[in-house]
Write a structure and sequence with these properties.
Blueprint lengths: L17 H11 L8 E3 L7 E6 L3 E6 L6 H16 L7 E5 L9 E5 L4 E2 L8 H16 L24 H10 L6 H12 L8 E3 L8 E3 L5 E4 L6 E3 L7 H4 L3 H11 L3 H21 L5 H20 L1
Antiparallel strand pairs: 1-2, 2-3, 3-5, 4-5, 6-8, 7-10, 8-9
Length: 306
């Protein structure tokens, strides 16, 4: 029987304890063993994250399906960081399975700043332009040898059709609560085109939780590149509806200057995520459901005008 902290939850994820992480660090990286290990305020879904002193963090995949991200981050994050002006969290060491924990893991440098979701910028337009500028720079980084969209990044940058069945199932579940014909029309439009230019780098999860802001509310760093790869940039535009609105959304769109079909596919990515979240969120998690509903309403309203 696994230890309690290694028993998977209903989604198959594990949550290693502070003590287990402390033992892992001490056994494999004794030079860091004197540093305290403490949980971060907001740990992620794909990884369990801990502070390691003040300057580092420990990131451990929460399930086997996320473990391949470790090698990818160690291979490519330095390449991206060297080409981008915005600081990225970069790994400094790779750990092995041990102390009962079954996956490779990483020690990262800790970057200052607060997630935008926890510290909403006072000037949303300036923040939106900062994020757009980061994405424009990311799209210019050399992609030679880079990993194409696939299972390793849950097809971020790939074809939306991978999620067709999942989206249809969610829409069927939501048939009494949303405008399903409009949602299906949006989805069909999103599936009708492809990115036909050279593949570009995608972050894969450009969310308010992975964008750090400084005290002035400007973009200070970008974290969590586990879903990075190369392909269609549409998947990285969903922030327009999940976090930005009004003038900030307009500024984000204008700064990126992408074609209407890319924005149509981006609405498809936003619809997929909002629909599956809304269809599968327990009734007790009203905040999460409300957030998904706002994004869904926003993309449907925009599709009606497109």
């Amino acid at each position: 029987m696994p230890a309690p902290d290694l028993l998977p939850d209903p989604d198959g994820r594990i949550a290693p304890s502070v003590e287990r992480v402390r033992r892992l660090v001490a056994a494999q990286f004794p030079g860091y063993a004197h540093l305290p290990v403490t949980p971060v305020a907001r740990s992620g879904w794909d990884n369990r994250t801990f502070h390691l002193g003040d300057a580092y963090s420990v990131r451990l995949p929460s399930a086997a399906r996320y473990a391949a991200q470790v090698e990818k981050e160690h291979r490519w994050l330095a390449h991206l960081a060297a080409a981008l002006a915005v600081p990225l969290a970069t790994p400094v060491a790779t750990g092995r399975p041990g102390e009962g924990y079954p996956y490779p893991w990483s020690i990262f440098r800790w970057l200052p700043g607060a997630p935008a979701e926890a510290a909403p910028p006072a000037d949303p337009v300036a923040f939106a332009e900062d994020v757009a500028d980061f994405l424009r720079a990311l799209h210019r980084v050399d992609t030679t040898g880079a990993p194409a969209a696939g299972e390793h990044n849950f097809f971020r940058g790939g074809a939306l059709s991978v999620y067709d069945g999942e989206t249809e199932a969610a829409l069927a579940t939501l048939s009494r609560t949303i405008d399903v014909p409009a949602a299906r029309a949006l989805w069909a439009r999103a599936l009708a085109s492809r990115w036909e230019r050279p593949a570009v780098w995608v972050h894969g999860d450009v969310s308010a939780g992975n964008l750090l802001v400084d005290e002035a509310g400007r973009l200070a760093a970008v974290i969590d590149f586990g879903c990075m790869g190369v392909g269609d940039p549409a998947c990285d535009l969903v922030l327009a509806w999940t976090f930005l609105d009004g003038p900030a959304r307009d500024a984000f769109r204008a700064r990126l200057d992408l074609d209407p079909e890319t924005w149509a596919r981006a609405r498809g990515w936003a619809l997929w995520k909002a629909a599956i979240t809304l269809a599968n969120t327990p009734g007790t998690d009203t905040a999460k459901a409300a957030e998904a509903r706002r994004a869904l309403d926003a993309v449907l309203a925009e599709h009606a005008l497109a």
